[in-house]
Specification:
By secondary structure, the chain is mainly alpha-helical. It folds into two domains: 75 residues, Endonuclease Iii, domain 2 (Orthogonal Bundle); 104 residues, Orthogonal Bundle (Endonuclease III, domain 1), CATH 1.10.340. 58% of the residues lie in helices and 0% in strands.
């Protein structure tokens, strides 16, 4: 991690100042499995607190031994059982669809980033943002740049004193010096806004 931080601080003085302000890198990783992907679906477009509350209810209703979500139990709940937990109709359907998929979770750590994204986004309800979060927080990939993330856009807008939030292509351009540690840079940008992404 020292190598990544040294690289980022040297390559980008603005990001270097953010790193010094935020302090040590303390990312939290999750298992690359059904539970983590389900959590990411629940978290879409919600604050961290709201997502945690709803996901806690889902776990309480559908967790198997070991505290992990069971696709079978999600399927058994159906929309009528998921909706009272705080899920929208759409998210309930997304979870049911995910539970019905045969995603090769054990193979994902061995696939390159683009293949992981292709595999996950083939599932209805899993978009590129969710795939990026899975790459970062479940697979621990070091060079993921979630250009569609609102927090990243807002942090860059503020930190780099831009006239407007940057577009994805502008983020790609600005982030070139961060490579191959864009995930680390992204984590610091989230912390800079005091609101890390929830997976």
């Amino acid at each position: 991690m020292k190598k990544a931080l040294l690289h980022l601080q040297t390559a980008d003085p603005t990001l270097g100042a953010i790193i010094r302000q935020v302090g040590p890198y303390r990312i939290t990783y999750h298992a690359p499995d059904f539970t983590t992907l389900a959590r990411s679906i629940v978290s879409q477009q919600l604050s961290g607190k709201a997502a945690d509350t709803i996901f806690g209810r889902v776990l309480g209703a559908a967790a198997a031994r070991g505290g992990r979500l069971s696709p079978t139990r999600i399927a058994a709940l159906g929309v009528d059982g998921l909706r009272p937990l705080g899920l929208s109709q759409q998210k309930a359907n997304y979870l049911l669809n995910l539970a019905a998929q045969r995603i090769p979770y054990a193979r994902l750590p061995n696939l390159p980033d683009d293949e992981v994204i292709a595999t996950l986004t083939a599932v209805k309800g899993v978009g590129v943002w969710t795939a990026h979060m899975f790459l970062m927080f479940a697979l621990g990939r070091p060079d993921v740049l979630p250009t569609g993330d609102l927090g990243i856009r807002n942090a860059i807008h503020r930190a780099y004193e831009l006239p407007a939030p940057p577009t994805p292509s502008e983020i790609e351009s600005l982030a070139q010096p961060w490579r191959p540690y864009a995930s680390v840079a992204s984590w610091y940008l989230w912390r800079y806004l005091d609101g890390p992404a929830q997976l």
